[in-house]
Amino acid sequence: MRVMAIDYGDTRTGIAISDATGTLAGETLVIKSYNEERTLEQVCAVIADKKPAAIVVGYPKNMNGTIGPRAEKSGKFADALRERTGLPVILRDERLTTVDAHRILTETGRHGKKRKETVDAVAASLILENYLSEIKTQQGNGSSVGST
To answer: In this structure, is residue 107 part of a structural domain?
Structure first.
């Protein structure tokens, strides 16, 4: 089961796609768009091409667990994806994934423009890896993973 993770943003949207077995994060890409509708269309085109069975959208709650404007935007984007694709769209708390992505890029020597172009894809990969890891853990003890 292929899974796609999305780190939705106002300017750049990172996408990570698992392998066909839904075990490992694989391909990544970044969609650059300032227009919400255009971003949605481009993400839907990737979905049509890669055919994931499920979509995980990063849900950036505030550090205190409350829902702020960024999480609201991500929730609306997830609703639009669900409506357009008919696929299961799961919201996942993604606090600090962008911070972790910047740390990873610093450790690998990516700075400046190269970092800006890849940080959203790395953040999407972290969302996907966390989700896939949780699925494995839940399957190991007979539970299922749901939305946040």
So the answer is: yes
Better pLDDT: 56 or 116: 56
- How many folded domains does the chain comprise? 1
d(CA 88, CA 95): 22
Structure-token pair, residue 131: 């989700």
Q: Is 108 helix (H, G, I), strand (E, B) or coil?
A: coil
Here the CATH number for the domain that contains residue 120 is 3.30.420.140
pLDDT, tens only, 85-103? 999 999 998 866 666 666 6
Q: In the beta sheet, which residues pair with residue 56?
A: 5, 90
- Label residue 120 left, alpha or beta by phi (over 0 means left) and psi (-120 to 50 means alpha): alpha
Record the pTM: 0.83
Which pair of tokens denotes residue 56? 């995980």
Question: Does residue 148 carry a pLDDT above 50?
Answer: no
Give residues with Cβ within 8 angstroms of 142, minimum separation 6: none
